[in-house]
Automatic annotation (TrEMBL):
GO terms for cellular component: cytosol. This is 4'-phosphopantetheinyl transferase. GO terms for molecular function: holo-[acyl-carrier-protein] synthase activity; magnesium ion binding. Residues 117-192 form the 4'-phosphopantetheinyl transferase domain. InterPro entries: 4-PPantetheinyl_Trfase_dom, 4-PPantetheinyl_Trfase_dom_sf, AASDHPPT_N, P-Pant_transferase_sf. One of its GO terms (biological process) is lysine biosynthetic process via aminoadipic acid. Belongs to the P-Pant transferase superfamily. Gsp/Sfp/HetI/AcpT family. The lineage of its organism: Bacteria, Bacillati, Actinomycetota, Actinomycetes, Pseudonocardiales. The keyword Ribonucleoprotein does not apply. It comes from Kutzneria kofuensis. Its EC number is 2.7.8.-. Keywords: Transferase.
């Protein structure tokens, strides 16, 4: 069994740095359309994050399907406008759900066969930074009350944010659904969905915190009632 083989009961998280993949490898795998979209970013690091995410997604999938990374078919059709900037999906016959996120120095890709998946990475540029107004607009009353007792409300808020963002990516709602309508467990407790307005029962959702490294927080959500096993892997295995 290959070290990177995706098992039926797990969610793989692949990690990369924006500067980890040589430019020639990025150019060989990432389609021209996505290269052009990445080129619209003004900052080089933003372009590198976008390109690295596109490369990592295709290369991680190719490791499972046996294709060459540049042969992996992805559909990003937006459910609202029909443009190619929506959540990534593989052809139905592949049987793998995927998600991608990047922030700061980390790029993440999630792969699983368990159900629809969302991964989110957040970066805290300043230690202890906390946007009170943003918290009041995105947290429930219970979540906000729990945040008041935290020794580091900035870090606690970012943990709640990535949990909610991962959930919204898994359902495909994105920020079209207000985060305040979703309630998750407090930052100091095991991650779990507590309540939301969707028909999907809370026990049909699994949440897990990830290990992106210092000053970053990350979470993954999978729409499944089965136990969730997480395996985190480095992009060096794919180079």
């Amino acid at each position: 069994m290959a070290a990177d083989q995706l098992l039926d009961d797990e969610c793989q998280i692949w990690w990369a740095r924006p500067d980890q993949v040589p430019d020639d490898q990025l150019a060989a795998v990432v389609p021209e359309a996505e290269q052009r979209r990445a080129g619209r970013y003004r900052q080089r690091v933003d372009r590198q994050r976008s390109l690295t995410g596109a490369w990592l997604l295709r290369t991680a999938v190719a490791a499972q399907t046996g294709e060459h990374p540049d042969e992996v078919l992805l559909d990003r059709t937006c459910a609202d406008c029909g443009q190619q900037h929506g959540r990534p999906r593989l052809p139905a016959g592949v049987g793998i759900e995927v998600s991608v996120s990047h922030a700061g120095d980390r790029v993440a890709v999630a792969l699983t066969r368990l159900g629809e998946v969302g991964v989110d990475v957040g970066f805290a540029p300043l230690i202890g930074q906390f946007d009170r107004d943003l918290a009041e607009n995105t947290l429930s009353a219970k979540e906000l009350a729990a945040l008041e007792t935290s020794d580091n409300p900035g870090a606690a808020f970012l943990q709640l944010w990535v949990r909610k963002e991962a959930l919204l990516k898994a359902t495909g709602h994105g920020l079209r659904m207000p985060m305040s309508r979703i309630e998750v467990s407090p930052a100091g407790e095991p991650p779990a969905l507590v309540a939301w307005p969707l028909d999907i029962p809370v026990d049909g959702v699994r949440l897990a915190m990830l290990n992106p490294g210092p000053r970053h927080h990350a979470a993954v959500a999978v729409l499944t009632g089965q136990p969730l096993r997480i395996r985190e892997l480095d992009a060096d295995l794919l180079l």
